[in-house]
Design a protein that fits this description.
554 residues, alpha/beta, Rossmann fold, 2 domains, six-stranded mixed beta sheet, 23 helices, 37% helix, 24% strand
Length: 554
């Protein structure tokens, strides 16, 4: 069988800020058969997306192809003039982005944007394209398929928008679809539905696919073959079962090990609270947006009478789908978002709802590490300035004392001291998140609120951050409130897990119950939706349709 895609010795160079040219893709070769789905996996910077985009004849700014060939359905995507490549994109090769929201124009209705591909390429009349779009809406299991196209992008959920972006990619009957981390930002229950829909449509239409991801469990459910990349070089290329069960390359084995974070319990002395008095007490917190009504309750209530306790030296995980109130709870505890009702006590003392009413010592003791280090770190400041500010504010440090402490903080989070003179834009995602953590440590915090701090990181880097958090806890007697939708990560670091749904705490349990018998129906649904690292898991997953309907937030 003639391959649909033939990549031979692809080499791509990039230009650094200093003007030096470096090879970022080095001699990559692979084939994709008609109807085959191939996954590209590897850590950030491995070249996954760069290779995938070049299958569409697109090379990122600052990069250039210096060698090799890319053939897709008989087209030389490197040698073709841009006008010809543009005609192929959307018709023979299409793309589903990581952020569906960025793919849609908020000012236009969804249906108008989906059929635009047919209008641009003149493949069919608009009326026929609308009928085809409706068929795809049904095939992708979208709710209210007859009317969902009349909505605007902001009027549908993230999972629905991701499937709608797939509709846009598939309406032109492409031979190859590129999926670039399309479920990374989705909750596990939504992810299951989206993966099922993608897989069903691709199989039914016999479309080839390239699935870019760092999530091996997701890849295991959809890919026929896996190509493992590192530093722009293919490390291993084999059928999915062989990669998962019989990995040959040491780096592939490292990826598999990182996906299964250590859940070994801490020793008894560490696990026991150092004091009978809770470190943090949160009681009956009510918070939200849109101002207060006549009864003093937020018009848009996000948290509804939430209560938690956290003992010194312990870690509490908060899990649940997007919009359940996890991050809002962290902001309320930190004082960034004042609660309308309820009480927060820290080390036995009541905290003011608003951080402006808290003492400097209270601010120092509770620090928050945000999900996106890109927006949490000032891009105009050097790492030295970013870490120096809390040292001066909380401890009055200056001069040599501050410089020495900055070096110590960088060493604590396993970063070279030479990075102190760089700006955040010059660091990798994992390095930026370590700086984010070092800034919290600069305050000598007792409690660190970790808000989805590994969700934007690849598996290997995320595992290293979790190991670092554990080590810091042993050395500094820290406590963590760990917010995540990644249940495996929470299980690896937390002593107990709180499950939230629609602003309410619905269950609290120990992580070893994960996969066992949680009491609440939503917890059962949440835990059963976590992809397992084996082929066939998705096909064999059986979930109560009434339960899915009852808890639908998609």
């Amino acid at each position: 069988m003639t391959p649909l895609v033939e990549v031979r010795d692809l080499t791509i160079e990039a230009c650094t800020d200093s003007g030096r040219r470096v090879e970022i893709i080095r001699g990559v070769s692979f084939d994709i058969a008609p109807g085959e789905i191939v996954a590209l996996i590897g850590e950030s910077g491995s070249g996954k997306t760069t290779i995938a985009l070049n299958l569409m004849g697109y090379t990122r700014p600052g990069c250039r192809v210096t060698g090799g060939s890319v053939q897709v359905a008989g087209h030389d995507m490197i040698a073709l003039p841009e006008r010809r490549r543009a005609a192929i994109r959307g018709s023979e090769v299409s793309y589903v982005p990581q952020s569906a929201a960025a793919a849609f124009n908020p000012a236009h209705r969804i249906m108008d944007q989906v059929v635009e591909v047919a209008r641009i390429h003149r493949t069919m009349p608009v009326a026929q394209a609308r009928e085809k779009a409706l068929a795809l809406f049904r095939a992708l299991a979208l709710p209210n398929p007859e009317t969902i196209g009349e909505r605007y992008p902001h009027q549908v959920s993230g999972g629905q928008l991701q499937r709608l972006s797939a509709t846009m990619a598939l309406i032109g009957d492409p031979k190859l679809v590129i999926f670039d981390e399309p479920t990374t930002a989705l909750d596990v229950t939504t992810q299951v539905e989206v993966l099922r829909a993608f897989k069903a449509v691709m199989r039914e239409r016999k479309v080839s696919g390239v699935y870019v991801s760092h999530d091996l469990a997701v890849v295991a459910q959809i890919a026929d073959r896996i190509i493992v990349l590192r530093n722009g070089v293919v490390q291993e290329d084999a059928p999915t079962p062989d990669i998962l069960e019989r990995p040959q390359h040491p780096y592939t084995r490292q990826l598999l090990a990182a996906f299964r974070p250590s859940t070994a319990p801490r020793v008894a002395a560490e696990a026991e609270p150092t004091s009978p008095e809770p470190l943090l007490v949160v009681r009956d917190i009510v918070a939200g947006y849109g101002g207060l009504d006549k009864t003093g309750v937020p018009r848009l209530r996000v948290l509804d009478k939430v209560s938690i306790d956290l003992a010194p030296g312990r870690n509490l995980g908060i899990v649940g789908e997007s919009g359940c109130g996890k991050s809002t709870l962290a902001r309320v505890i930190a004082g960034i978002m004042p609660a309308a009702r309820g009480e927060i006590r820290f080390e036995g003392r009541a905290l003011a709802p608003d951080l402006r009413g808290r003492s400097r010592e209270e601010l120092r003791a509770i620090q928050i590490v945000f999900q996106c280090a890109d927006t949490a770190l000032n891009p105009a400041k050097s790492i030295e300035e970013i870490l120096g500010r809390p040292l001066t504010f909380y401890h009055g440090m200056g001069g040599r004392e501050r410089d020495a402490r900055i070096s110590e903080l960088l060493e604590i989070v396993r970063l070279p001291r030479a990075l102190r003179h760089r700006r955040p834009g010059e660091l990798s995602g994992g390095q930026k998140q370590r700086v984010n953590l070092a800034r919290a440590l600069a305050a000598n915090a007792k409690l660190i609120l970790c808000d989805e701090i590994t969700s934007a990181l690849d598996t290997v880097v995320a595992a290293a951050i979790i190991d670092l958090l554990k080590e810091l806890q042993r050395e500094l007697s820290l406590s963590y409130l760990f917010i995540s939708h990644d249940l495996e990560t929470v299980r690896a670091i937390c002593d107990e897990v709180v499950v939230m749904y629609k602003g309410e705490k619905i269950e609290q349990l120990r992580p070893e119950i994960h996969g066992g018998e949680p009491r609440h129906a939503y917890t059962k649904l949440l835990f059963s939706s976590v992809p397992q690292l084996r082929t066939g898991w998705l096909d064999g997953l059986e979930q109560d349709p009434e339960l899915l309907k009852a808890f639908a937030q998609r």
